[in-house]
Design brief:
Layout lengths: L10 E4 L2 E4 L1 E3 L2 E8 L22 E3 L12 E4 L3 E3 L10 E6 L7 E7 L17 H7 L2 E5 L4 H5 L2 E2 L5 E2 L2 H16 L5 E11 L1 H9 L11 E5 L10 H15 L4 H5 L3 H15 L22 H4 L9 E7 L4 H4 L3 H4 L3 H12 L3 H11 L5 H27 L4 E6 L18 H5 L16 H21 L19 E5 L4 E4 L5
Parallel strand pairs: 2-5, 9-10, 9-13, 13-14, 14-15, 15-16, 16-17
Antiparallel strand pairs: 1-2, 3-4, 4-8, 6-7, 8-10, 11-12, 17-18
Helix pairs in contact: 5-7, 11-12, 11-13
């Protein structure tokens, strides 16, 4: 592939054609680069297809449209998530590189979260600028199909199944990275895939395909909901049937002709139908389909194709305050209501479990017990069990807990889901719209961000998160069970039990 050294308008030859980027802050940036054919018309609800390419030079100076999704504004935690314009023709990625050269830098591929309903590679929050500049990395982020366009599951008359289209998108993007990233100064043999929440679950699912010509060496799993398993085909078909009814379509063929805004609108009805008090609920879940996802994602990293990957994994101390801490429905919850929720997990032991959670947090209200119970169930306990299982197999894994509490909302959030993101990216200006950062002391905030950001850079570059400005971080093992706790004072702690 040819390279251009014109720093005012860098041009790169890719397998699909030439693209012209821009220079921003001393980095070469390429935005809105197609990595698969637009999934429109007859390609709606089909796996990602190769892009046919283009003639001439493609202008890569502006982001492509975000995947169709509901506009989320006014959220008391994040403020907003997702960035218009939205369009089905959304399968593009973005690249940040210190230079278009032959340096073969380590590559970070970032996959955004958002419950498979929202998010975009165009969001300033997920810009690769800080990682590219501070770590001398090539950074790629991407859009993938969300909501009904990415997660509905169908079976054809001939019995063929169609599901996990979001995952086929991500696999196509990884294939693009493998085939093209050297032209951007990156090393296709030194790729780290990282993500948060749904992006972390995606990363684990992608680990099931590391031998399929889409290699990566390392995985970063931030707040991965391992306590929320992939759906069975039967459950997914039932969800599709319910969606058809809400959308007013008699069959899939009729649904195929519906405009995407009506599909996004019907998602709100499905979310209402699937809500269950005290549970994190999502209208769509990836499906255990036997082909794109033949096993639960966590198994890919234990005994599956991703077993040899280096893994960095962790959670925030109060993950579930994101959903439960601020809404009046939960803030006014009674002990009896939370006990009822606890029975779904602990059965006859619910009262003892409630008492234990209450004792562990002096002055705990019922909603605080709910937050801690849900955080344990979805994130902390399965994450530590995963680290324990990796350690038992002699597989490399580093575990962390992000425990730095935000003072926003009178401190009711603690360290909620998503709070580590601006620290990982060290880009607080890009999160100015997010209420959950209000009131932080900039000196403490910025010092912690430098420590976290540098640890991620070190892991991406070497497979080891240690750097001189933080305490030594040992691999998780069954003897010490070392977990790095990121807080006002960052320290390595030893947990006596993984459960």
């Amino acid at each position: 592939m040819g390279l251009s050294q014109d720093r005012t308008a860098p041009v790169v030859h890719t397998g699909s054609g030439r693209i012209r980027g821009v220079v921003e802050g001393g980095l070469a940036v390429f935005k809105g680069v197609p990595y698969a054919a637009p999934p429109v018309g007859s390609l709606r609800w089909l796996p990602a297809q190769p892009h046919p390419g283009w003639s001439g030079v493609l202008d890569a100076s502006a982001y492509g449209p975000s995947a169709p999704q509901a506009v989320r504004a006014g959220d008391p935690v994040l403020g907003s998530h997702g960035l218009p314009p939205f369009d089905e023709d959304c399968l593009t990625l973005n690249v940040w590189t210190p230079a278009v050269d032959d340096a073969r830098r380590p590559v970070l591929v970032w996959i955004h979260g958002g419950a498979f309903l929202s998010g975009s590679g165009a969001m300033p929050n997920y810009s690769g600028e800080t990682f590219a500049r501070n770590g001398d990395l090539v950074v790629v982020n991407l859009n993938y199909r969300l909501g009904p366009l990415g997660l509905l599951y169908f079976e054809s008359d001939d019995g063929a199944a169609h599901g996990n289209l979001w995952l086929t998108d991500q696999l196509a993007a990884l294939r693009w990275v493998h085939d093209n990233i050297a032209a951007f100064g990156g090393d296709p043999d030194n790729v780290t895939v990282a993500g948060q929440s749904a992006g972390a679950l995606s990363t684990a699912a992608l680990a099931g395909h590391v031998g399929d010509g889409r290699p990566f060496r390392r995985a970063v799993l931030q707040s991965v909901p391992l306590g929320m398993p992939l759906a069975t085909p039967a459950a997914s078909l039932a969800r599709t049937s319910a969606f058809l009814g809400i959308a007013g379509a008699k069959d899939v063929d009729e649904l195929r002709t519906a405009p995407w805004p009506s599909l996004v609108g019907a998602t709100a009805g499905l979310l209402g139908d699937t809500m269950e008090w005290g549970h994190w609920t999502v209208p769509f879940m990836p499906v255990l389909d036997g082909s794109t996802a033949p096993r639960q994602p966590v198994e890919n990293l234990l005994d599956g194709p991703g077993a040899d990957l280096d893994v960095l994994i962790g959670w925030t101390a109060e993950e579930s305050s994101f959903s439960f801490a601020l809404g009046e429905m939960y803030a006014s919850a009674t002990r009896e209501q939370v006990l009822g929720r606890a029975r779904a997990t602990f059965g006859d032991g619910a009262a003892d479990a409630y008492a234990a959670y209450e004792a562990a947090r002096p002055g705990a209200r019922p909603v605080d017990v709910l937050v801690d119970l849900s955080t344990d169930e979805l994130f902390r306990k399965p994450t530590l069990a995963f680290a324990e299982a990796r350690a038992a197999r002699g597989r490399p894994v580093w575990a962390y807990e992000f425990a730095f509490p935000t003072p926003a909302h009178e401190g009711r959030l603690g360290a909620p889901h998503c709070l580590e993101l601006p620290f990982v990216f060290d880009n607080f200006d890009a999160w100015a719209h997010a209420p959950f950062l209000a009131g932080m002391d900039p000196r403490i905030r910025d010092g912690l961000a430098r420590s976290v950001h540098r640890a991620w850079i070190s892991f991406i570059r070497t497979g080891d998160p240690n750097h001189p400005a933080m305490p030594h971080w040992e691999r998780y093992d069954q003897r010490s069970r070392t977990t790095m706790r990121f807080d006002t004072v960052t320290t390595a702690v030893s947990r006596l039990t993984p459960y």
